[in-house]
Automatic annotation (TrEMBL), chain A:
PROSITE patterns: ABC_TM1 (PS50928). PANTHER family: INNER MEMBRANE AMINO-ACID ABC TRANSPORTER PERMEASE PROTEIN YHDY, MEMBRANE COMPONENT OF AMINO ACID ABC TRANSPORTER. The keyword Membrane applies. This is L-glutamine ABC transporter membrane protein /L-glutamate ABC transporter membrane protein /L-aspartate ABC transporter membrane protein /L-asparagine ABC transporter membrane protein. Belongs to the binding-protein-dependent transport system permease family. HisMQ subfamily. One of its GO terms (biological process) is amino acid transport. Residues 224-419 form the ABC transmembrane type-1 domain. It is found in: Cell inner membrane; Cell membrane.
Automatic annotation (TrEMBL), chain B:
SUPFAM superfamilies: Periplasmic binding protein-like II. Transmembrane segments: none annotated. GO terms for biological process: amino acid transport. It comes from the Bacteria. Residues 1-21 form the signal peptide. Belongs to the bacterial solute-binding protein 3 family. Keywords: Signal, Transport. This is L-glutamine-binding protein /L-glutamate-binding protein /L-aspartate-binding protein /L-asparagine-binding protein. The lineage of its organism: Bacteria, Pseudomonadati, Pseudomonadota, Alphaproteobacteria, Rhodobacterales. Residues 33-262 form the Solute-binding protein family 3/N-terminal domain.
Length: 431, 338
């Protein structure tokens, strides 16, 4: 029978075939391109158009970068060297580098202070941003506002020390009467701090040269540094204010509730630029002639008020998203309002609010360029005013604005990436 | 009782404020610096250089006043102002003098309560177009898109001109001169209009200035001058006569080069009076005898300032035109120093 079988079946394979490579069209780059770029005639057409556009942009911009000139002293010299060929005149960036970063009036031999303040800012911000770092570093974060102020504005070290002492004395007073009630504690804090600052004022006046750095008035701040100062200060101030406003808006006490509602709705109903004009122009009429209330502080107050109102609404959204059960659970544990808010409500509400808060922070940072319309020389103000109005650089646009875009992109993109990382870190639900 | 005390205190405060506002000269001397409002940057007229030192034609006026009053041309605190903030800065007392190519108009002088101390540049509004547009007169610009700075007198002049000639236009509003340049070059508007001095400076910065022409029509009078607050005539006089001293010095041939020689006495009694070697003009102003000499030394006489910052040998390249001395067919005519 086996013979029969051998005849009826022509061929029997006795070994396995070696594994073959999949067809070239189903793996690697080719497969990916077929799947993603050339799937159907419509996709193919779109891909071809996109490639053409990209090619046009690159082909146009590439010689502009490569032929760029970095070492001349004026636009006219650039044009002389280029002789009509395409090329960027990046010399404006190298020649006015310090002005773009620090403004045009900060004393040049004091730039180290700004750089040091910037480096220390990174050190101070790190433990707040990354919770894996040792908690002891937070001590430095608390000191940083005073160190940063002293480094940037200069003057005697006593001024920030007295400010710091005021907070410490106030905190001690708060601790002493905290057991009576929170409100009493807050009042004690205020009184103690004010007394300390008042007394410290005499000390500052009597020894203005104590460990003094060269004092730099606010009017001399400028460049990207001014954007950074405004952005960092206003974001860090508006977050606590925003939380308080959001809680106040949910409060059962009518006066607090209505103050918060009116503040938030008023600020949200007014454009930021109007508030800046008020800070710059209108306040000057109310103050007696000769008094100069620091312009940067006026602007910081206005931007902070503006950002606080927006952050308050974002956080209110977070609070509203918490299930009712969380509040009730906190109550059933016997926690009072402050404890429940601090331990149960806020951590969850803030986590929900992260994307919104970051959105406001990025928008706020970009909005700091609006100060250029009230004749402050931030990065945009420097470019629009002094640099483009100098006889050497009148007519350079793409290079300067490109640089500004680049700087802002770096900062804003980093903020956005950080927030996404933070969301992943805090993700505790197993979705 | 309490109320009357309160009102009394308010009155005293008001009087003190009024008194301090009235004696700007004393304030400036006590402070030791002159707060001078300038532009945030205009080629040739005012801009900080790479080291942050302000320089320019308007800046020269600030420095001359500081030299006359404080004996130090560098004792100036420059306060940059925009077209929108300049008048409030002056009215609120933040600055003592505004030298920011501001057009002298009736309403600014009378209604806004300022005092223009003179004219340091006679300007007029003109039009610039690309050469290949083939237009030779502004009256042929029917239907054109026009780049125009908002919040300035040029905006109103433009509307007047086109209405008068019964032709239409489409305005493209812009904020600063720096914004207008790329917009105009990339064809965002057919015509760019601003003061003729600004057009010349803008055109000079182009890669191919020859491709663009400034039309012959000048459609407005724009006398640009420094101004101070209304109601402090002593301070106004100081500024007015510092400006006149610079103009008169050119007319009389006093330059920063030969002034030391002339201060030892000349045959011309007017020069002697100007430089304080004769008469007591300085005393009348509340200054010392050398006030005008110091102002002239600070940056040179009017002609020297003009040549250095905006004259034909600078990138701005303006000719004297209306701003020549009256003896050369221009409008500069300083009253006599007597």
């Amino acid at each position: 029978m086996s013979d029969m079988h051998a005849h009826s079946v022509a061929f029997v394979r006795e070994t396995m075939l070696p594994e073959q490579e999949p067809p070239a069209s189903e793996v690697g780059v080719v497969h990916w391109m077929r799947e993603n770029l050339f799937r159907g005639w419509a996709n193919t057409l779109m891909t071809v158009i996109a490639i053409f556009v990209i090619y046009k942009i690159v082909a146009g911009a590439f010689p502009w970068f490569v032929n760029g000139i970095w070492s001349t002293n004026s636009l006219a010299e650039c044009r002389e060297i280029l002789q009509g060929t395409t090329g960027g005149c990046f010399s404006v960036l190298t020649e006015r580098w310090n002005q773009l970063l620090f403004g045009f009036k900060y004393p040049q031999d004091q730039y180290w202070r700004l750089i040091l303040a910037f480096v220390l800012l990174g050190l101070a911000a790190a433990p707040v941003l990354f919770n894996k770092l040792p908690k002891q570093m937070l001590f430095f974060t608390g000191l940083y506002p005073f160190i940063g102020f002293w480094l940037i504005w200069g003057g005697t070290l006593l001024a920030p020390l007295v400010a710091l002492a005021g907070f410490l004395v106030g905190f001690a007073a708060f601790k002493k009467v905290e057991h009576q009630s929170f409100a009493m504690g807050a009042l004690a804090f205020l009184v103690a701090a004010l007394v300390t600052w008042f007394l410290g004022g005499f000390a500052i006046r009597s020894a203005p040269g104590f460990l003094a750095l060269e004092a730099v008035p606010s009017r001399d701040m400028g460049g990207f540094m001014l954007n950074m100062i405004l952005g960092v200060v206003c974001v860090s101030l508006s977050l606590p204010f925003g939380i308080l406003l959001a809680l106040g808006r949910q409060s059962d006490m009518p006066i607090i509730k209505w103050i918060c509602v009116v503040f938030i709705e008023f600020i949200r109903g007014v454009p930021l630029i109007t508030l800046l004009f008020v800070a710059n122009v209108v306040l000057a009429y109310f103050l007696p002639p000769g008094t100069t209330f620091d312009l940067i502080i006026r602007v910081i107050i206005m931007i902070t008020a503006f950002a606080s109102a927006y952050i308050a609404e974002v956080i209110r959204g977070g609070l509203a998203a918490l299930p009712r059960g969380q509040y009730e659970a906190a109550d059933s544990l016997g926690l009072d309002y402050a404890q429940a808010t601090r331990l149960i409500i806020m951590p969850q509400a803030l986590k929900i609010s992260i994307p919104g808060i970051v959105n406001v922070a990025v928008g706020l940072f970009k909005d700091t360029t609006l100060v250029s319309v009230i004749s402050m020389f931030d990065l945009v103000g420097m470019i629009r005013g002094p640099i483009l109005a100098s006889t050497e650089w009148n007519g350079v646009y793409w290079e300067l604005w490109g640089f500004a875009v680049f700087l802002f992109f770096i900062v804003c993109y980093s903020i956005s990436q950080y927030s996404q990382w933070l969301e992943r870190q805090l993700q505790t639900d197993h979705r | 009782m309490k109320k009357s005390v309160f009102f009394g205190a308010l009155t005293v405060a008001g009087l003190a404020a009024g008194a301090s506002a009235a004696a700007t000269l004393d304030d400036v001397k006590a402070r030791g610096t002159l707060n001078c409002g300038v532009t945030t940057g205009l080629v040739g007229f005012a801009a900080p250089d790479a080291n942050g030192n302000w320089d320019g034609f308007d800046v020269g006026i600030c420095r001359a006043v500081a030299a006359a009053v404080l004996n130090d041309p560098t004792a100036v605190e420059f306060v940059p102002t925009t077209g929108k903030t300049r008048f409030t800065a002056l009215a609120s007392g933040e600055i003592d003098l505004l030298a920011r190519n501001t057009t002298w108009t009736f309403s600014r002088d009378v209604d806004l309560k300022f005092e223009f101390v003179g004219v340091n540049y006679y300007d007029g509004q003109g039009f610039m177009i690309p050469k290949d547009m083939g237009v030779s007169s502004a009256k042929e610009l029917d239907g054109a898109t026009v780049c125009i700075q908002t919040g300035t007198t040029t905006e109103l002049n433009l509307a007047d001109f086109f209405r008068k000639n019964n032709i239409s236009y489409e305005p493209v509003p812009i904020e600063t001169n720096a914004e207008a340049q790329p917009l105009y070059l990339e064809g965002g508007c057919d015509v760019y209009t601003t003061d003729a001095s600004g057009l010349a400076a803008t055109r000079a910065a182009f890669e191919n200035p020859g491709d663009h022409v400034v039309l012959p029509e000048i459609i407005s009078k724009e006398p640009l001058g420094p101004l101070v607050r209304h109601g402090d005539n002593e301070w106004g006089d100081v500024n007015r006569w510092v400006l006149n001293a610079l103009i008169a010095a050119e007319e009389l041939g006093v330059t920063s080069a030969n002034i030391d020689e002339m201060m030892s006495g000349t045959e011309n009694p007017e020069i002697n009076r100007l430089l304080g070697t004769e008469g007591n003009l300085g005393e009348m102003l509340g200054l010392d005898a050398d006030w005008a000499a110091r102002a002239i030394k600070a940056g040179g006489n009017y002609g020297e300032l003009f040549e250095k910052h905006i004259g034909e040998n600078t990138p701005v390249g303006l000719s004297r035109g209306l701003n020549a001395q009256w003896t050369d067919g221009g409008l500069l005519y300083a009253p006599p120093f007597r």
